[in-house]
Every structure is written in structure tokens, then in C-alpha cells.
Amino acid sequence: MLQVFTSEGQKGTFRILNQEENSVPHIRIATRRSPLALWQAEYIAAELEKMSPDVTTELVKIVTRGDKILDVPLAKVGGKGLFTKEIDEALFDGRADVAVHSMKDVPTQLPEGTSIRALPERADPRDAAATITGGGLDTLPEGATIGTSSLRRVAQLQARFPTFKFVSVRGNIQTRLSKMGQEVDAIILAAAGIRRMGMEDQMHEFIDTEMLLPAVAQGTLGIQTRNDDDVVNALVDRLNHADTVDRTRAERAFLARLEGGCQVPIAAFATLDGDQLTLKGLVGSVDGKIVIRREIVGLRRDGAAMGIALADEILDAGARPILEALYAEGSHG
Ligand SMILES: NCc1[nH]cc(CCC(=O)O)c1CC(=O)O
């Protein structure tokens, strides 16, 4: 909202709308300022501009609470929407028309009045590792120190490599990679982010999804708009990728049922084979001692129901006390 003095000298609050009816819009895109976020916003800006020679775009750069708190492991910061709340506000206030997010950071419940309108084609969903040996994680010595602040990665890798030690590293991709060989023997990052930054050659292993099941929607971008913005929505809708939409629906239904944020060891990964959808999911304890893993196969149009059913199956198989203990610790806001 914009506060200005009216001609009568009184303070008034106005919502600025940036497009006349029937005109091709100028689209303001809200984004965080990290190099990855900027790449993603510029990528979507280019996709929108491709749709019509008259579409113009502009980036609105926003600092979120998650960007400010860099010295605390994410699992301890808590709070849903750590990286999204201030961006939601820019959309509400009409300072921006579109927001571009990494879907893995987007809470399952969105603020009223906006929605994730489009999911473009998913990029590489895997995690990737850079190691001091220059080989895969299995080439590291016993007791190696691995940098990651993701409980999902710790839980799964601790189960497979019981001697490894895990330390939290925060900051953007560039900062985190710079700690390799200094504070840690390996760093694990999402492959999609690494590729977008053109840093593939610095990674030594793209980890198979069977060994390290990805975060819900890892590698997928989401485009958020105001529900009532018909002009922008008509354009943004065209960026949807049908397979990505169906996979994401199943993975996020699973997450929503578990009430999980990114601060909980939860993973889910959907794949498609024609009309058949396979959804794999797990919940782990942080020490890697328990990893409850199940999969469900069905029709792609039933993804949401499958996500819920898979979550219930994993809860019944023993995940309930794990999640309750984590939430009680306050790692979830
Ligand atoms: N949690 C931060 C975050 N959110 C999205 C990505 C990478 C891009 C993606 O997965 O879509 C990353 C970095 C990482 O986990 O290494």
C-alpha cells in the first residue's frame, strides 16, 4: 500500500494498479536478492517476455527474515514461510504482480488472496555433493565432516554413513561451497541450484534419488500471483508444465498431511510413467536411527489422495512420535 496526502491534505492509502484494461501488462516480479533467486526471477521474466513482444518485466528485490538470520541453523530458526512472508506482503500491497519461489521453500498453506498459479518444468530434483576426495560420498574417509543444514539430508545420510559427522552451513550456494575443504570435507546442495549457477563442474556426485530422496518439490519453481489479477494470471497460466504440476501436487499433499516445514526430516519424490504416478516418501529421525520409507502407485490424477494416503501410512508405521518430538522442541513455528 502507498500512503500519500490527498488534495485535501489528508492521509490516504492507495493500492497502485499498474495496468489498464486490455493492455499487455508490465509485470513486476518480487524476488529475494540471492544470486539463485535472481537467476530464477530473471528466468521467469524472460519466459513471460517470450509470450508477447509487448510484455515488459521488472524485478522487485526483497529481503526476507530468512536472509537476515544467517548465524543460526535453519532448524532452530523456526517459523513457516521464513523466506516467503515479506514477498507475500509485496504481492498483497500491489508492489509486485508476480513472485517467483523455489517450491521447496514454499509452505503448504499460502496466504489468502494469492496462489501458486504456475509450475514450470522441474529441473534436476537430486542433491549433489562436492568432496575433498573429488569422488562420491563413498570415497570419503570414516568420520568425515559433511556440511548441510538440511535435516532431511542428515537423517538419510547418517543412516547410510554412520561415521560421518554433520555440521550446519548457512548462506547462499556460493558461500556454502566456499567452506568445502576448510570447515568440512564435503558440502551437499540441491543440483538444480548448482546448475542454475553454472557450478556443475564443482560437484563430484549427483546423488541418486534412491540414496537421498529429495525434498518435496526440489528443483521446481513456483509462480505466485494475486487471485484477482486476471491479466497477469492469463499469461502466467501458460507457463504450467503438466507433468510437474501432477508430481508437485502429490508431493505437497504428502507434506501438508505431515504438517512438515523444511525443518523436519521429510522427503518425497513423485515420478510419472504415462498415466501412472509413483510417489516415494519418508520421515526420518535426525540421528538416522529411524527412517520410515514407503511408496504408493496409482493414477496421476489421484496424486493428492495418494500423498495423503502415503503420509498416513508412514505416520501409522511409526512417524508420529518422531514428528511430535521435533515439533515439541520448537523447530516448527
Ligand atoms: N533451501 C534453500 C534452497 N531452496 C531451493 C534451492 C535450490 C533450488 C531448488 O531445489 O529448487 C536451495 C538451495 C539448496 O538446497 O541447496
UniProtKB/TrEMBL annotation:
<comment type="subunit">
    <text>Monomer.</text>
</comment>
<dbReference type="Pfam" id="PF01379">
    <property type="entry name" value="Porphobil_deam"/>
</dbReference>
<comment type="pathway">
    <text>Porphyrin-containing compound metabolism; protoporphyrin-IX biosynthesis; coproporphyrinogen-III from 5-aminolevulinate: step 2/4.</text>
</comment>
<dbReference type="InterPro" id="IPR022418">
    <property type="entry name" value="Porphobilinogen_deaminase_C"/>
</dbReference>
<protein>
    <recommendedName>
        <fullName>Porphobilinogen deaminase</fullName>
        <ecNumber>2.5.1.61</ecNumber>
    </recommendedName>
</protein>
<dbReference type="InterPro" id="IPR036803">
    <property type="entry name" value="Porphobilinogen_deaminase_C_sf"/>
</dbReference>
<keyword id="KW-0808">Transferase</keyword>
<dbReference type="InterPro" id="IPR022419">
    <property type="entry name" value="Porphobilin_deaminase_cofac_BS"/>
</dbReference>
<keyword id="KW-0627">Porphyrin biosynthesis</keyword>
<dbReference type="GO" id="GO:0004418">
    <property type="term" value="F:hydroxymethylbilane synthase activity"/>
</dbReference>
<feature type="domain" description="Porphobilinogen deaminase N-terminal">
    <location>
        <begin position="27"/>
        <end position="232"/>
    </location>
</feature>
<comment type="similarity">
    <text>Belongs to the HMBS family.</text>
</comment>
<dbReference type="InterPro" id="IPR022417">
    <property type="entry name" value="Porphobilin_deaminase_N"/>
</dbReference>
<dbReference type="GO" id="GO:0006782">
    <property type="term" value="P:protoporphyrinogen IX biosynthetic process"/>
</dbReference>
<dbReference type="GO" id="GO:0005737">
    <property type="term" value="C:cytoplasm"/>
</dbReference>
<dbReference type="Pfam" id="PF03900">
    <property type="entry name" value="Porphobil_deamC"/>
</dbReference>
<dbReference type="InterPro" id="IPR000860">
    <property type="entry name" value="HemC"/>
</dbReference>
<comment type="function">
    <text>Tetrapolymerization of the monopyrrole PBG into the hydroxymethylbilane pre-uroporphyrinogen in several discrete steps.</text>
</comment>
<feature type="modified residue" description="S-(dipyrrolylmethanemethyl)cysteine">
    <location>
        <position position="262"/>
    </location>
</feature>
<feature type="domain" description="Porphobilinogen deaminase C-terminal">
    <location>
        <begin position="248"/>
        <end position="315"/>
    </location>
</feature>
